[in-house]
Amino acid sequence: MKEKVQEAKALLQEKSEILRRFFEQSKDGLFSYNKELRIIDCNNALIHMFNLEKVELFQHELHKLKNEDLALMIKGAMADKNGKFAGTYINHQGKRLWLEIRCPQFMT
């Protein structure tokens, strides 16, 4: 039994590392957030897209986004709804960006 538990832990560790590499190396901007709708992790593509430091992104409260449709979609994920958003977003520097976002149900 102990051997099977060790094997399962090793497999889980391996899968976690694959997911981490995918997250970090993706050319798409990816982020994860917590129940308070604060970004808790993001990849370099997202940092580059918004031209911010990672620490600055962590300070953003997603429920206070200027684009209400985007904020509602993210909030909906907290209510067990899958969300999609496609539209323009104006970043903090006034630059218009086209975003296509898919937000799966929030997993606790």
In short:
By secondary structure, this protein is α+β, with helices and mostly antiparallel strands.
What does this structure look like?
- This protein is of the alpha+beta class.
- The protein has a single domain (2-103), classed as Beta-Lactamase (2-Layer Sandwich).
- The chain contains four helices and four strands, in the order αββαααββ.
- The chain has helices spanning 2-25, 44-50, 54-58, 68-78; strands at 31-33, 39-42, 83-90, 96-103.
- A two-stranded antiparallel sheet has the order 1-2. The chain has a two-stranded antiparallel ribbon with strand order 3-4.
- β3 and β4 form a beta hairpin.
- The longest helix is centred in the N-terminal third of the chain and has 24 residues, at 2-25.
- The chain is elongated and about 55 Å long.
- The model has no long low-confidence stretch (mean pLDDT 82).
Q: What features would you highlight for this structure?
A:
two-stranded antiparallel sheet; Beta-Lactamase; two-stranded antiparallel ribbon
Biggest β-sheet, characterized? Answer: 2 strands, antiparallel
**Named CATH topology:** Beta-Lactamase
Going across the biggest sheet, name each strand in turn: 1-2
CATH architecture label: 2-Layer Sandwich
Specify the CATH class: Alpha Beta
Estimate the strand proportion.
Answer: 15-25%
What's the helical proportion of residues?
Answer: 40-55%
Low-pLDDT ranges: none
